[in-house]
What we know:
By secondary structure, this protein is an alpha/beta fold. The chain is 38% helix and 14% strand. It starts with a helix and ends with a helix.
Amino acid sequence: xxxxxxxxxxxxxxxxxxxxxxxxxxxxxxxxxxxxxxxxxxxxxxxxxxxxxxxxxxxxxxxxxxxxxxxxxxxxxxxxxxxxxxxxxxxxxxxxxxxxxxxxxxxxxxxxxxxxxxxxxxxxxxxxxxxxxxxxxxxxxxxxxxxxxxxxxxxxxxxxxxxxxxxxxxxxxxxxxxxxxxxxxxxxxxxxxxxxxxxxxxxxxxxxxxxxxxxxxxxxxxxxxxxxxxxxxxxxxxxxxxxxxxxxxxxxxxxxxxxxxxxxxxxxxxxxxxxxxxxxxxxxxxxxxxxxxxxxxxxxxxxxxxxxxxxxxxxxxxxxxxxxxxxxxxxxxxxxxxxxxxxxxxxxxxxxxxxxxxxxxxxxxxxxxxxxxxxxxxxxxxxxxxxx
Length: 388
Ligand code: XIL
């Protein structure tokens, strides 16, 4: 009891002098810990991503943390095409609906992810009669039905959608759009993007409609993103904004490029979100999914649980040092400085996960809370990064 009181006094004292210094081991769900969502409420929404999965249920303590720290949630997997629409005539809504209900009960906003993507999308979308590839007309019809059904179902309950995810290929020089040769491009052509945006708008006249991708803030991929976004706007795609995923790492901290990219997107009249933020301390960062094929010829390891399997195959990484945790904290602080500089166009900053032990970059300690739900130095740094 007395130690609790001491903690409280220390926190209040630290707040009073402007900078926060959290006592060690403080549980992030505790009401005595400041709330990120509250701290940034005048700037942008602060989000997290998860699902009510059965094999590793979200604990009560995690739910408290979510309610306290975040005001918007992205379903990590449960609204992806293969989750809600595993076969042409089969829709499975249970996990997604559970999240919708949680958000409704707790007055938390919900952001939809994702409608047209090259991964976590059933092969049936692209299969035609007698083992032939699907015809263009049929693929368009399937895209339309999928989007109308999913967006229509959650109309009024979801603030926006990542309509198209990761359409640009890696490694281009930026002289073209460099579209990924996805099944959607092969079946329909480059105009599948504009169609997807139009279908989403038909199903919900009010929600935000975003293009979402990783590594688009820099290099050739950034230039390609400008070409693509300009084309979408020209073709009349009802696009609200661009999601910069933000899968970064201590060996990959594109501050200057990010600042510039947000400025350029704003010039196109677009809103911006940081949609999947994490900063790995060790190992590979970046947003690309594991490239190898899964068992039985399944597509790359994109199914839920892939991160765990990948971590198991890779073996343990060395635990981060105190200095590395501090470097991560400094990086988060710098990113939040940049986000605030652009708060006029930023809708939302979403962390890709609740805590390190649940992250798709498990073992790389990328988030603000550790597996015991203790606030990491990065959490404190984000709180203190708030401009006065
Ligand atoms: C990841 C999930 O976090 C994992 O659970 C799943 O196994 C694979 O997908 N970019 C995206 C997200 O847009 O949907 C991905 O999420 C991470 C990269």
